[in-house]
Amino acid sequence: MAVYTQLGPQQVDTLLAHYDVGKLVALKGIAEGVENSNFFVQTTQSRFILTLYENRVNPDDLPFFYALLKHLHDAGCKVPQFITDRDGQWLQTIAGRPACLIEFLDGVSVTEPTEAQAHSTGAALGHMHQALADFTLSRPNSLGVSAWRPLASRCTVEGLESIATGLSARVFAECDYLEAYWPTDLPVAAIHADLFPDNVLMLGDNVSGLIDFYFACSEVRAYDLAVTHSAWCFSNDGTAFDAEVSAGLLSGYADYLPLDTATREALPILLRGACLRFLLTRCYDWINTPANALVTRKDPLAFLRRLDFYSDGRHVENMLGHYT
Ligand SMILES: Nc1ncnc2c1ncn2[C@@H]1O[C@H](COP(=O)(O)OP(=O)(O)O)[C@@H](O)[C@H]1O
Ligand SMILES: N[C@@H](CCOP(=O)(O)O)C(=O)O
Hints:
The chain is an alpha+beta fold. It folds into two domains: 9-103, 2-Layer Sandwich (Phosphorylase Kinase, domain 1); 115-323, Aminoglycoside phosphotransferase (APH), C-terminal lobe (Aminoglycoside 3'-phosphotransferase, Chain: A, domain 2, Alpha-Beta Complex), CATH 3.90.1200. The chain contains eleven helices and nine strands. The strands form three sheets. The chain has a five-stranded antiparallel β-sheet, with helices on one face. A two-stranded antiparallel ribbon has the order 6-9. A hairpin with a 3-residue loop joins β2 and β3. The radius of gyration is 20 Å and the shape is globular. 36% of the residues are buried. The protein binds adenosine-5'-diphosphate and the ligand N[C@@H](CCOP(=O)(O)O)C(=O)O.
């Protein structure tokens, strides 16, 4: 569930009075998501998402997210717009929280993507990366390679071992490896950094929206492809790799940005990095979220299994064979 702050219609009416968007007709908390409180808002004119930023989003980062989405929208990417009120303000306060009214995009997120849907997602990612080539704002990645060892330490050896025997040694060995080989010569740009299937809206085989940019940051651009690949190309538990979905995703991306030699050479490391990032954040949440909390904890081992897969160089070679 992701409604941490409750809102009544009166509060939303008062907020909407600042906008030219009509009167409130329906208000509903949205169960999906983990970071913020999200509400579906229907007015006499249109539909919106009302997001209240909870503790995991730093309000100081909101201007970066606003500018990023505006830049992408202006470049023709399918991303939601922050709505401005009559005074040109897009950031409000409601129930003591920073809040934004956001364009509602049609579509549903898929749980078992097809090759065609993966192709459309790869293309949307490539289009986004192309559009961000001239985006000048930056935001450090607080979950980048230098953050993984401290995060592993915060999980503690006992915590990691409580999830799986031997996990602690594996995680620290992976930190050693990735710190030594992380690429430093690839283009760095603004990236989404969390393009899981639940953050892509689809209508049929086509992407209708990319949402949830709250991990967006400046990073090695191809790392975004690695994150998306790791999220899309396996069964949810990470036991089964889907070669067709992988081929679809990579070819959609390559329609916009070529998988050049430097990118292909770095991908095995970037893919392992993506797995370690989600393995660690899930471990941290697993250890620190009470089992009876309202938020559902995600399985860390689903990303250890993906890490095992990518650590076998032959798998990545096969995946990229077509592009060499
Ligand atoms: N602009 C949007 N248009 C349509 N639905 C949206 C939009 N933004 C969010 N949602 C819905 O709200 C859910 C949670 O949003 P998300 O940004 O992923 O939350 P969180 O940041 O808490 O993870 C999404 O899964 C989607 O169903
Ligand atoms: N995608 C991450 C968790 C972040 O959740 P989101 O709802 O903000 O996308 C994971 O699967 O570990």
